[in-house]
Amino acid sequence: MSERKNDGPTPMERFLGGLIPENPVYRQILGICPSLAVTNTMEGALTMGVAALFVLLCSNILISLIRPLLKPHLRILVFTLTIATFVTIADRVLAAYLYDMSKQLGPYIPLIIVNCVIIARCEICASKQRVFTAAADALGQGLGFTLGLMTIATVREILGFGTWFGKWLGWRVIPATAPAHWSNWVIMILPPGAFLTLGLLLGVFNALTAKKEKAA
Amino acid sequence: MNYLVSVLLLAISTALINNMVFHYFVGNCPFIGVSRRVDTAFGMGAAVTFVVTIAAALSWIMTYFVLAPGAPLTAAVLRLVRPGSTAVADLSILNYIVYIFVIAWAVQLVEMYVRKFFPPLYKSFGVFLPLITTNCVILFTCLEIMKHVPVAGAPVAEPWGLDRALIFAFFAGIGFLIAIVLMAGIREELEHCDVPAPLRGPGITMIIAGILALAFLGFTGMDTTLARRLAPKPPPASAETAARPAP
Q: pLDDT digit string (tens) for B188-201?
């Protein structure tokens, strides 16, 4: 784990890069499991995004601090155990303050441990960079992940329930007195809707990127 | 209910109705990443089935004897350290860390064992075995089993013994195997198709997975129907036994 001072992107570039150009959900296709499982409501998506952001930030900082001590053959195990510790903290905090949400997310909060986004960031960035750089990278990737989850959840919740943040804020996007030919697309809340939405959004995202590259 | 019938119902509901990939969305990374060819997909599925069964057994044993509130081993240690203490030994806060450790250990163990004793099998599993440590299917199965381990202190809704946990884990692996092999079969054909450029790769795979998930929705309710069909009909059976002359 050699020290690298002046190569690679700056902290600011890393932070901005995580948001859209290297978005974990749409560009790197990592962390698919939560982005399908918890995105039938905005509340679930936001909670999962914030929990993952917290775990990613804390474990990136810690890994970056202990990087001189890491042994190459044990590093993945160290990453996983560090992440598991922070996930336990996040899980207990959620169970204490947002009990209903914790019940709804169920096993998907502990499954953050094996979320590829976090292990990938520990491996690519935190184990090689200084603390500030690692924290900026974690913030960018975490926010990008949250953004990815929330775009999927927006499509699914509006089409499935006709609401946006229905449980917390109660905003109706499609009025309750909608024309008779509109009915909630139940399939969007069920598992198939998750796969279809993510697949089509990936297509849209790729098409937009290709257009932008052609224009540039 | 008859033991064999309940095992059959658990197997069907785990492998088909609540399929790991299409219902719980776990194991999606290998499902997208390693489903280009049928033979590698089958290798991945078999390796997962193998490891998940072993990891499930280990995690059930750890939960029952060490981690759960009032677990016998922890309680015994507590009595040794603090004789006369009335506190309930509860290590459940360590659940996730212990599970991930158990999984990593099980993967290492399986890898060494297979390499030593079944070299051809090791060659076919090869690269997949170390990858499995971070496969969500394994951790998800351990977490599901955690909810069902019978605890002395707090009774659970549907307690599973070690046998039930093993059956659940094995069929969770089989469900994953079915899903990934199906997907690989479709993707082999897909190579000859003209997919719109933005959807190529993961995009079209997701959409196909969505259609497959729609198909798997069709299994919903199969277990309750089967349970009704297979359940013994009490009134005629009792009448028959009553009518039978005693030997």
A: 998 888 888 888 88
Which of A87, A196, A210 is facing B210, going by the closest CB pair?
A196
CB atoms near residue B3 (< 10 Å): 9
Backbone Cα Rg of chain B? 22
Chain A hits for B218, Cβ within 8 Å: none
Compare A208 and A1 and report the one with higher pLDDT. A208
Q: What are the residues facing A171 on neighbouring strands?
A: A164
Please report whether residue A191 resides in a domain.
no
Residues 108-137 on A with a CB inside 8 Å of B are: 110-111, 113-114, 116, 119
- A32·B207 Cβ contact <8 A: no
Long-range contacts of A2-8 (CB under 8 A, 24+ apart): A2/A128, A4/A128, A4/A129, A8/A129
Give the range among A145-149, B3-7, B87-91, B211-215 with minimum mean pLDDT. B87-91
In a domain, A190, yes or no: no
> Is A10 part of any domain?
yes
| Total structural domains within chain A | 1
- From chain A, pick out residues whose CB is under 8 angstroms from the CB of B104: 77, 80
Range of the domain at A114: 3-154
pLDDT (mean) for A105-118: 88
The CA distance from A207 to A91, in Å, is 37
Q: Which residue has the higher pLDDT, A26 or A2?
A: A26
Residue B26 near residue B147 (C-beta atoms within 8 A): no
B2-52 per-position pLDDT tens digit: 888 888 888 999 999 999 999 998 888 888 878 888 888 888 888 889 889
A124 in any annotated domain:
yes
